């Protein structure tokens, strides 16, 4: 037996067309359509999630940080500490000769005051250090710089990696 269901539309006034009584068969047909529509919208929402995750470079079923084991987390932290420290030391080593000359200029060393104020004074001072002391003279005091930079750069890089979004 079909139970009639009355369609109540918002704003139906006196001029509205007559309301048709619906049967259970009509309702079932509409329910099937709505289920399919919901499945399609879920698929679209899922595709949207994939697009967002794809932009972030995450796979669809990525493992969250909460499911990583303690050893995996500690290995990652150790790697980022070492990588950050090595990167900081490398950067400082590249600019060490320039830093050495800069420090000599800042301390107003009597041997290097003649190079200040000229266009190529920095390079002439570096060449003078190289002639007098060799490469070792350009890196004088560098080991203490590395002892200071390694932990600083390591902690800074590890913190950056942990806090980036």
Describe this structure in words.
The protein has 165 residues and is mainly alpha-helical. 65% of the residues lie in helices and 0% in strands. The protein has helices at residues 24-56, 70-94, 96-106, 121-133, 135-138, 142-163. The two termini are 60 Å apart. The model is unreliable at 40-54 (pLDDT under 50).
Give the structure's gist in a few sentences.
The protein is 65% helix and 0% strand. The chain has 165 residues and is mainly α.
- Residues in helix, %: 55-70%
How many beta strands in the DSSP annotation?
A: 0
- Average pLDDT value? 75
Radius of gyration: 36 Å
Name the shape in a single word: elongated
Discrete helix count: 6
| Poorly predicted residue ranges | 40-54
Order of helices and strands: HHHHHH
Question: How large is the share of residues in beta strands?
Answer: under 5%
Output the structural class: mainly alpha
Distance between the termini: 60 Å
Instruction: Sketch the major β-sheet.
Output: none
